[in-house]
# Entry
Amino acid sequence: MNITKENKDDLNAQLTIKIEKDDYEGKVNDVLKDYRKKASVKGFRPGKVPAGLIKKMYYKPVMVEEINKILSESLSTYIRDENLDILGEPLPAEEKQESIDWDNQSDFEFIFDLGLAPEINPDLSDQDEVPFYKIKLSDELITKYKDSYLSQAGKYQEAEQAEEESMLTGDLVQVDENGEPVAEGLNVPETKILISKIADEEAKKELIGAAVGKKITLDVKKAFTNEADLAAMLHIEKEALETLSPTTFHYTLTKIENFKNAEPNQEFFNMVYGEGEVNSEEEFNERLKKDIEVNMGQESNQRFGVDAKKYLLNKLNAELPADFLKRWLMETNEEVSREQLEKEYPEVQEDLKWQLIKNKIAKENEIEVNEEEIAERAGLVARHQFMQYGLGNIPDEHLQSYVTKLLEKPEDKRRYYEMLKEEKVLSKVKELVKLQEKEVSKEEFDKLDS
# Structure
């Protein structure tokens, strides 16, 4: 067997692999011998089928399979041993590859196109300047965060008068043009309605300030424009809305509930931070301030990541073997059209460039991610998700069980690996470059271009 490489340019190469009969004949014969021992052919006892007949029946498919194995192994070995940094996977050379006559050839030549990764040299120093935005911690920001926590822990409470955000409960009755109940019409008791979700402004105004017992007339199609929600409210199929007639209903209030934020008391402190962790509003405010500072620091670092990535892509501006990559993407994504590929390729190209830069920085700085770090990050993400649902005190053993199941999925594990790797790379970039520090308000920070 002989393998040769020809560089077409800096980003494209071709590998020619020549396989001769001596390379595969022995393996083919071994397989045929095994076939002969097991073959069941009418007229012959097991293991007594003539070798010539076995060869006639199976030689070609076995030869093709063994040659493909040799081809795959030799390709992988050559790329590894020669330290070739390729993009995508080797593709058969469409222009040079001659058709193969499996019936008559004994020696074979296979030609593959390779897309080569460009040379990447970040060479970062304090000559490289990247903006770093620090968010000013204001009293307004602290109040906003506190109100958010109090709102999350809030509840609807029964009230005497409806407000703009009230939850109403009432009886819906389908009525005719005279306001009389329709015979065998829809009657939906204890229907819950959020005033804020009503699209009909006149109906909304009539309900705000109303008390229990108030009856209003609603054109339900005018009041509720989301068909799925309206169908669910009326307990009918969505398709039935097309023939719904009349669409006029009387709605009589039987209950009014107004949303109230939680009180900053011990029950609330325990729910947010755990039993006995915070014991006064003053302690809560201090703990909240520290949490906000941590969150703002994380947001600043995330923003730095966006700006650093943009800076590095612009600085290095590496060229990629575009024609090869488009061909590879088309062949590995059969559902993607050429038009769609051309539209999405610029974004794919930027992602590939960033991957190359990231890998280079990681390699130069010996950045690695271990299993323990992956599990720890998955745990943090999971705990945060539980907290969003008000489950701030989930026991560690339950959390660990959830994380273990989560990381059984290769795609999830890979996602956390890539997340940590990128964070470590950007952390190293932050050490190497010069930071252009800028202090901004949260409002100014949120308006920065992505």
